[in-house]
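User: Fold this; C-alpha cells only.

Assistant: Input:
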Amino acid sequence: MPTKVGNLVVFGAIEAKWLSLGGLGGALGAPVNNETPTFDGVGRYQDFQAGRTISWHPDTGAHLVYGSIGARWREIGRERFGYPINDESGCPDGVGRFNHFRAEQLQGKPEASIYWSPASGAHEVYGAIRDKWARLGWERGSSRYPLEAEHDEPGVGRLQRFQGGYFTWTPAGGAQQHNGAYAPPPRITLRAISDGGRFIEVQGDNFTGRQSAKVAYDLFAGGGPTTHQTGEHTVAVNEVGHIADRIRVNLSGLSGAQVQATDLSSGRAASASL
C-alpha cells in the first residue's frame, strides 16, 4: 500500500526498498519529490533527504545511491551512466565503498562502477580498464583505488591513475596495467619570432626537473633546391620540468622546422613541426 508523506507518495518497488531501510524513521528519512520517470521512460527514481536516491529499473530492481558516490553519479549523468545494480556497499578492507551500475540503454548493457575511499575520493571505472582492474582483484589488487576518471592523454591513449599505479588503453594494445606513478610524456611547442634576429622559440614541459634535454633541429627553406640548417645542443630543465630555448635562423625564406627534444634523464622525446 502506498505511503503518503505530506503531499508526497512513496509506492511500488521504491517503497519496498525504502521501508526495508527503515522508512521515514530510517537513514533516508522523508522523500523530497514524487517518484519520477528516468530519461529513457523505462526506469523510475525518487530522491530522499540527505541526498539519497533510490533508482529502479525492471531489469535491475530498486537500489540505493548516496553520499560521495551518489554525488559523482549525478554529476556524470545519473541513470544515463547506469542504473545501480546494488546498494552502496562496503569494500572488504572496511575503508572504501562502491556501487556497480549497468547502462541498460546501451548495446550489450555494459557495467561500470564508482569506487570511493577517504584518501582517493569517488571516481568511475568502466570499459576495458575496469575489466582489467577487476581481473587483477579490484581495489584489493596492487593498483588499489582509482584517483581520477578515465580520460584521453596525448601520446598515450586512454589513461586512468590509481593509488598503486595506472592503466592505459589503446586500440592496438588494449588495457594495460603499469606500476608506479604516471609521468606524462614530454611535449614541446614551436613559435617563429623576430627579436633582434629570427628565431624558432621552443617551449617544453614534462621533462625531468633539474636535469638536461637535448634539442635537435632541422630548419629548411624551399624555393628551388631545399636548403637545410641542422644542429643540436643541450638545454637546462628547470625545477618544474620546463625547458625554454631559441634556435637562431640563418636561412633566408624559412619554410619550415622540425624539432625534437630528448629528456637526457629518462630518454623520452617530444617532437614538433612548424
